[in-house]
Amino acid sequence: MREEELAIHGGPRVKTDAFGTGKRFGAEEAKELLEALEQNTLFYHSGTKVKTFLRRFNELYGVRYSVAVSSGTAAIHVALGAAGVTVGDEVITSPITDQGTLIGILYQNAIPVFADLDPRTYNLDPASVEERITPRTKAILVVHLAGTPADMDGIMEVARKHRLKVIEDCAQSWLTRHRGKLAGTFGDYGCFSTNDFKHISTGDGGIVTVNSGDEEDFQRVHAFADKNYRRFSDEVMRDPECLAPNYRMTELQGAVGIAQLKKLSWICGRRHAYGERITEGIRDLPGVLPPKVPEGGWSSYWFYMFRVDESRLSCTRDQFALALRGEGIPASPGYIPHVLYRQKMFRERRAYPGSDFPFSLSDVSYEPGLCPVAERILATSIRLPVSEFFTEKDIDDMIRAIRKVARYYAKG
Ligand SMILES: *Cc1c(COP(=O)(O)O)cnc(C)c1O
């Protein structure tokens, strides 16, 4: 069979029309915002919008308690603080994630420890997590990357065996499920982001679930997001036991959140269908490895990332991505530039200017080769955007482009 000429070589482009777009915010958000302003207060404790946002979230997630915060990063920091993570503790996490996963660990002056990943789900491998446990390990901070659930059976087993806290980073994984249970409800705390790039947006914002359902636990989380003040009635306790930041959500964010939450299930449903459709469309291709969702899992595909097997192709990963771009598909090589432990901060073991604290408390390794699977994932993956506003034709064009490029470069 004669292969079709690639667009980068002057052939016809696969994608000739624009990708679907749409409006994320409309009359419902405007109505909620106006009501928030008419309250004459934008403070979460005085108004009703953040409270209503959380009540609806709790119903959707089947949890008794959650706390609203100013970002996903804040949500994770709050969960770590509430879990008692403190100076010199080790927290095991993923080397492929957003910076927001790490920030709270280092602000608690705790030590990030990186475990390796599953080569096809890009999420933590429970066996590698267990290998990295030391007497100083306090918590596992598990990331559900790109909408796909981590192996929570395996992670929870390791955590129970070693009595570790589990915090779930669900910033990219709204409505993600594992064996019918929602990501964010397995561990002690689940952390969500509503920054402007996530499934739903409040501009910035976040939520922490309190999965114990215990009131004291809830009060600890709540206080840690609000200066460690205890604001549970009209009488406010302003004599904090320990340091905690101010990560409060405002009524404006809560108002937008109420309206956005109504769209969440449609958004995640579309993204799920589109992600699965791409996998179906490319799974038979030589040299192309679609992402895997674990058995019994459900992904809400924040993005779609597949890997290439360069041994079966006559091109590199970068050439494959470039060829896709030539076909009109906005593909990017990899995700973050390198595994997190190769960031300057870890190479030089410096988080605070002029200080080597807290790294000086630990001899944990950040050497290249620490997580070989994670390093291979970043070196061999190609990321495609997924949007609920794409059309089925957009997805089929993506599939056609991947098929065209893979066939062109297929060896033998
Ligand atoms: C977006 C994101 C965060 C941080 O959320 P912000 O709201 O931007 O602070 C944390 N972890 C992951 C995996 C993310 O994608």
Describe this structure in words.
The protein has 412 residues and is an alpha/beta fold. It has helices at 27-38, 49-61, 72-82, 100-107, 126-131, 152-162, 215-224, 251-282, 317-326, 344-347, 372-380, 392-409; strands spanning 65-69, 90-93, 111-114, 137-143, 165-169, 177-178, 181-182, 189-193, 206-210, 288-289, 297-298, 303-308, 332-333, 381-385. It has 2 domains: 7-23 and 261-336 and 373-409, Aspartate Aminotransferase, domain 1 (Alpha-Beta Complex); 27-260, Aspartate Aminotransferase, domain 2 (3-Layer(aba) Sandwich). The chain has 12 helices and 14 strands. The strands form 3 sheets. Strands 1-9-8-5-4-2-3 form a 7-stranded mixed beta sheet, with helices on both faces. α6 links the parallel β4 (137-143) and β5. The longest helix is centred in the middle third of the chain and has 32 residues, at 251-282. It is globular. The two termini are 12 Å apart. Residues 71-73, 97-98, 100-101, 143, 169, 171-172, 193, 195, 204, 206 line the site of pyridoxal-5'-phosphate.
CATH fold call of the largest domain: Aspartate Aminotransferase, domain 2
> Going by CATH, what is the homologous superfamily of the largest domain?
Type I PLP-dependent aspartate aminotransferase-like (Major domain)
Number of domains: 2
Record the strand order, biggest sheet. Answer: 1-9-8-5-4-2-3
Tell me, rounded to a whole number, the average pLDDT: 97
Largest sheet at a glance? 7 strands, mixed
Helix-residue proportion: 25-40%
- Indicate the proportion of strand residues: 5-15%
Q: C-alpha Rg, in Å?
A: 22 Å
